[in-house]
Amino acid sequence: MAAGAMSVSAGLAVSGLRRAFAALRLPPAQGLVPIPAPRGLSLSAPLGTTDPAWKCRVKYTVRPVGMKKTGGRDHTGRIRVRGIGGGHKRRYRMIDFQRLRYEEGAPPEPFTEKVINVRYDPCRSADIALVAGGNRKRWIIATENMQPGDMIKNSPHIGRMAVLANEGDAYPLGALPVGTLICNLESHPGKGAQYIRAAGTCGVLLRKVNGTAIVQLPSKRHMQVLETCVATVGRVSNVDHNKRVIGKAGRNRWLGKRPHTGLWHRKGGWAGRKIKPLPPMKSYVNLPRIAAQE
Amino acid sequence: LFPGVRQAQWLTKTKLVEGLPPAVLNIVNDPAHHLEGLEERVKHAISHARFWDTMEPAPRREHYCPVLFEHLIHLCRLMFERYPSPTKRMSARNYKIAATWEEVKSILLQVRGLNGVLMNSVAPIPPVASKEEIVATEEHVLETFYPICPTIDLQEVNVYRELNDTGKSSCFRDGYPYSHPHTLFFLESANIRPNRFRPEQLRAKMLMFAFGNALAKAKVLYGNDPKVLEHPVVVQSVGTDGQLFQFMVFQLNTTDLVSNDGIKNLVWIDSDQNLYEKAQCVPEIKKRVVTKPVGIYGFQPDTFKKFLALYLHGTV
């Protein structure tokens, strides 16, 4: 009798747990991966998701990933940035900004890759290039004259003499001659490119000072970084991006920009052209320098 | 990503020759094999598969592709009855193949999966290339894909057992009467175009599976050690999506795939043979006048002759 009662209560407890898990389980995002074809491959990613965790994908993939648009809203749900919303659906292609990323099991030495394809990316102004080397493919930001079939070199070595760099190659700043045009600059070695990524932009390597290099950004600001930071040589692709004419209001809406308010405001001191000296050089180099001086 | 055939060639150490081998072409051109009214029968088969077999206005590809295939095989078998019975055929559906081999730089490669239809025969197909051609392949250099490894885009799988047989039946063992792989048929019959393979990808798949079958048979016959075969194993393969046919004859000369030099395997590919240009199911009407009545347009009998020749190859 007691055993019977225990089994009944155990059964109730198990069913209770299952119901709780069912509530916890997130509703599947619409348009998730369809039932795999007999070959076990699903051939194209869904066009968009409602899954708020779409950004959390850990494994790198070349295939485009469905994005969820924010509409300018932050995590509370209120509009944080005005003028964003609507526009054509976009799929995100995972771009590898760290050029010197080695494959698993590959030694840290210079390697070449081949450009397979250069295409438009809906998520940024520059074009992206699919490059393949060794056993993997990845997307990178294309430079100005990149054509399918080019070979690109990535090297971490800094030699005594500066390297004659071809466009599209990635070298540390210490290996490049002074005066080269660079793009996709990192502020700290190994961090991944965060500067000079927009269409048609380029920075100039101004001078190299003991272990650091000074670069002029497109805003004419000077930036001091360690010379082991990697940058690619050349200007970013899609050079005529700023010369395009939008043409009509609808095209702006396709890009996801909502109209400004039409109310006339009297402009105050914030408006108008300002002429002021360059801000001081931004240094991303850490401070043991000062300790050495003392 | 790449023309898949080039990558498949590198992986299987194969040299490509365009067009079908002369032995098969001889069978194509030999008038003794022509049944009377063969063209009529083939057109009848296509019409049945594409027009008559369904209640809807037009049957879908996953329906008409296998039906057409069955018809063509039936026609081949009718031709075949003239020949003596020791050369019989057997076909297997939903057939699984698994073959393993070791590549340069000790990477284990495997061909696995559900095949289309495999046809086995009692006697093996005699080698198609002569000895001189085989020796000549030694000088042929496999193309490099620098800086890309040829194993790019292959699925990485944890292999717990190296399988070398052909499913549970393992029908390549000696006790079985139909013990030689003869021809593989691949039917691309998915309805949506992205689910079907493109012609180059289909050819690459045909090459890899033909190689897998040949390798499995060679290992059964000659053992597991990699070496050059004195009697090369020949496997044919046909791939289609109901309209476009790809024909391929693969000859395995060597199982020594670790090194990149030496004797290579050979493959003859005849690609993109249309059986018919268009099969109009519903009459095309412009301004209330029928411009294109229902029927088959652009029928090419040569494609079926090649199909038949591949079927008969080895017995003639």
UniProtKB/TrEMBL annotation, chain A:
Leader peptide range in chain numbering: none
SUPFAM superfamilies the UniProt entry points to: Nucleic acid-binding proteins (SSF50249), Translation proteins SH3-like domain (SSF50104)
Residue stretches making up the Large ribosomal subunit protein uL2 C-terminal domain: 165-284
Localization in the cell: Mitochondrion
Keyword Nucleus found: no
Listed GO CC annotations: mitochondrial inner membrane; mitochondrial large ribosomal subunit
Listed InterPro entries: NA-bd_OB-fold (IPR012340), Rib_uL2_dom2 (IPR014722), Ribosomal_uL2 (IPR002171), Ribosomal_uL2_C (IPR022669), Ribosomal_uL2_dom3 (IPR014726), Ribosomal_uL2_RNA-bd_dom (IPR022666), Translation_prot_SH3-like_sf (IPR008991)
GO biological process: mitochondrial translation
Coiled-coil intervals: none
Alphabetical UniProt keywords: Mitochondrion, Ribonucleoprotein, Ribosomal protein, Transit peptide
Record carries keyword Mitochondrion: yes
GO MF entries: RNA binding; structural constituent of ribosome
Large ribosomal subunit protein uL2 RNA-binding domain segment(s): 72-154
Domain of life: Eukaryota
Record family assignment: Belongs to the universal ribosomal protein uL2 family.
Protein name, per record: Large ribosomal subunit protein uL2
UniProtKB/TrEMBL annotation, chain B:
Family listed: Belongs to the mitochondrion-specific ribosomal protein mL37 family.
Name the record gives this protein: Large ribosomal subunit protein mL37
Organism: Piaya cayana (Common squirrel cuckoo)
Source organism superkingdom: Eukaryota
Key word Ribonucleoprotein present: yes
Pfam families noted in UniProt: PDCD9
A GO BP annotation: translation
Single annotated GO MF: structural constituent of ribosome
Keyword annotations of the record: Mitochondrion, Ribonucleoprotein, Ribosomal protein, Transit peptide
Subcellular location: Mitochondrion
Major location (coarse): mitochondrion
A GO cellular component entry from the record: ribonucleoprotein complex
